[in-house]
Structures are given as structure tokens and as C-alpha cells.
Design a protein that fits this description.
By secondary structure, this protein is mainly alpha-helical. It has two helices and no strands. It has one domain. Helices cover about 70% and strands about 0% of the residues.
Length: about 100
């Protein structure tokens, strides 16, 4: 069975990737009014653009929320690691030779 290895810096890097992904998704929204006004497909294009925009916003929101959660987990995990190390050090102080 493989072990999952986590690090605070790795989780922070993942959180940063989520933030960048959210910005990229939100920035890739189609321009409103891209279709020519008199064409029969204008309404269909406008409707599709509205759906794509709403979907992109929802994905960006989810990416941002996930990134914040991952960042929090990384911070808490690092704090717990330091606390555990301090407790172990108190049990058996280091002997220098």
C-alpha cells in the first residue's frame, strides 16, 4: 500500500495553482455581443455565451474555494508538525557529542 506524503509547501503550491486556474477560467469568458446583430444565429450565440459565462464563473468560484481550503489545510498541518516536533523534543532532548 502506497503512503500519501504531504508537505505544507506542496499544499501551498497547489493552492496557488488553484488561484491561478480560477483567474484563467474567469478571464476566458466569451465577449458579450460577439455575434452580429442581424444574423439568425445571434440569439443562439448570445444564449451559449451566457451559459459559458455562468459556468466559467461557477468553476472559478469552486477553484478559489478549493484553493483556500487547501491553503488552510497546509497551514494547519504545518502548525501541527511543529507542535509535534516540540513535544517530541521535550521528551528526549538532543545530546551533542
Amino acid at each position: 500500500m502506497d503512503a500519501i506524503r504531504l508537505s505544507g509547501s506542496g499544499l501551498q503550491a497547489l493552492a496557488t495553482q488553484h488561484a491561478a486556474g480560477a483567474s484563467e477560467v474567469a478571464g476566458g469568458v466569451p465577449v458579450a455581443g460577439a455575434a452580429a446583430g442581424g444574423q439568425p444565429t445571434s440569439a443562439a450565440v448570445a444564449s451559449a455565451n451566457t451559459l459559458v459565462t455562468a459556468t466559467a464563473r461557477q468553476l472559478a468560484t469552486r477553484l478559489s474555494a478549493t484553493g483556500r481550503k487547501v491553503s488552510t489545510i497546509g497551514t494547519v498541518m504545518t502548525a501541527h508538525d511543529h507542535e509535534s516536533a516540540d513535544r517530541l523534543s521535550a521528551l528526549s532532548p538532543t545530546v551533542e557529542v
